[in-house]
Fold these 2 entries.
Entry 1:
Amino acid sequence: MGGKSLFEKVWDEHVVVPETADTPAVFYIDLHIIHEVTTPQAFNMLRESGMQVRKPDQVLATMDHSTPTVPIENLEESLDAVSDPEPANQIRAMVKNCADFGIELHGFGSEHRGIVHVIGPEIGATQPGKTIVCGDSHSSTHGAFGAMGFGIGATMVGHVLATQCLLMRKPKSMAVNVTGKLKPGVGAKDIILALIGRIGVDGGTGHVIEYRGDTIRGLNMEERMTICNMTIEAGARAGMIAPDATTIEYLRGREKVPQGDAWDAAVERWMALASDPDASFDKEVTLDVAELEPQVTYGTNPAMVVPISRPVPNPGDNQSYRKSIDYMQVAADKPMLGTKVDVVFVGSCTNSRMTDLRNVAKILDGRKVADNVRMLIVPGSESVKKQAEQEGLDKIFTAAGAEWREAGCSMCLGMNSDKLGKGQLCVSTSNRNFEGRQGPGGRTVLASPETAAASAVAGVIADPREVI
Ligand code: SF4
């Protein structure tokens, strides 16, 4: 029998009852991250059934999706003034539900409030080998640490709160080997967009992807999170990267990691999670990134992506692609370069961490955002915000004419007050470019923070390699 992959090791350690031909496995969840949007129904279900939360200390709660990204001094006094009624009610319900069920909430005023997939790693709650779920698709982010993170629906949020388990079938495994040295101006976001362009939005369906190879090993943890974050956009259940020295150094000293002797024991356990040399995968793909260019999407799914200097493919008879580029108002056979931009959004759980903000600051420093562009820069968490301000990045952003906002999901999803207007084109560092994702009628071009910053300055989609 061959060795085990990273995913198989984590899977085997968490099966409570194995699956059979007729029944899925009962699968144990170590960490459940919750936010205000997918929980009201789950807490109501608990109340109606007279149940408690099974393990409140394994629940990490915050507010991010519907929260305004302007300051809130006092929840009751200022929420109505800065938020639509529905998001405001979700926020109030979250405060009450966490208090009623004994869950610690990182809400307004907490130094750890922020996007679910930013704060988990930041406080060290995300650890190698853990199973981590959240009612948000991009829970795959946590896989950067060798955890198995995946999104669940609102009903399953209730199941996990009540039982700390899920019913699920074992996914297949897929290896993505990334090789080659990246050129300046090309980064993790370009790698994952190129991969999705290559394998398609269903290329990983039914699989857990393990990212491997020298290029992945050379990325820092924030860049690895960007890669794992967008795994879901290739249809995969989760994306994982084996823990190594970079992982250990990132986690060392963080609030929720084991301390003292328990830390040493944990490191030993975590380092043993790497796939065995003779592990096999159901599917394997290799991506050479040595000649990779910055990537930009041109359509309404993340696989509709091109290298920035290359023309938008002609859809020919493909009616769905034609509809998509018509919606985006882009021309076939011409590059996206030079397309007029209305809004630039730097943020989301894909690209709102310090590495991203520093890269944006390098481009904005001493330059101005073009007159025709509104640029929002939204840190992923309160602690990213604080760190960025300590480094003076906020001053660079505001001097350039960008808006420096409070932490939250912001314009990733058009569920709070930050929305695109009808027809506006946004170069966005987020992860989804579906029709109306950032606001009804809005047009989203997914790109790296560097491409977003270069485009903000140029007022049109621009190649960051020309300004770096
Ligand atoms: S930033 Fe977007 S994808 Fe990430 S957690 Fe928030 S809504 Fe979900």
Entry 2:
Amino acid sequence: MHNQIAPIPCRPWMLNGLSERLIVSHYENEYGAAVRALNAIRDEIGNLDFTTATGRQVRSLKQEELACMASVALHELYFANLGGDGKFVPAVADALTRDFGAVDAWRSEFLAAARALRGVAGWVVLNYARRDRRLYVQMSTGHAQSLVDAVPILVLDMHEHAYHIDFGANATAYVDAFMRNIDWGVVADRLAAATGDRPSSQLAAAGDAPAISVKDLSAGTDAAAIARLGLPSVSIEEFSAARAKSERVQVIDVRPRHYYSRNIDMMRGAVWRDPGRVDEWSKELSADRPVFVYCAYGFHVGCSVTAQLQERGLDAKYIRGGLSAWYAAGGARELNAREPEALDL
Ligand SMILES: [Fe+2]
């Protein structure tokens, strides 16, 4: 079974003191590499004849599979617990007080674990141990060193790639910025799911999301609310399969003009169109060929344009995770040498 690239869950341009470049580079390069390595190992395991394989072959592949699975999961948890305002929610503060004596005592232990990994690399994880029914601060220098029967509640990546672009060797400043950006609502949700107070955090989040219309889409629209709109979409893997099957697909890059002008590398084979001028360029599209739309990360812009194209009778779908997920999956990119001004349509 192949792992799919998960769209980046936090909005990289809205973090406080962590640059978009840092977060996106981390997601596309390190997380993407982990998913691709895992899938390559799974292919190798799938092709292995276990009746003749040596113990060394099996050990090596199984250890690599475990490490890659852990890296993929920890990265997804890490990106998803970013994007908040760093303010505690009562349910988590109560649990930390119960298990550490005080929130400050927990913070002190968590920060000490992070400091201990400076120059070493690894993960700091707040785990809920099901056997003990309590929280522990734990750290690992390898991806797969985890407590048995534990649920990661909060994850901090202390590998140098997680901070060097913004902070150089100043890991302390990175950890300060991380603490300011923790989404404690996500942490509370994970804790509730781990303790059995809630069956599924994702389902609960989707159920709690307010109902909105396409016109309400904005940079701050919650991902669960977008999902409830039910707009047609495809994963990166589904899009790749559709494009491999037919050259008739139309692929449109609809990143906002100001964004595109700063980042003119794009998906190979796509054309850029201004998302503010759908009325003008949508007439160029063929109604009998599928249209795939992507924006930078798969949030509001791609969804909004897809809805507008659907209203015009086109078979349009947006690509979940956008261009960033395409790059994370190892998709080909090319530089569009044309200036955005030359693209006025
Ligand atoms: Fe990482």
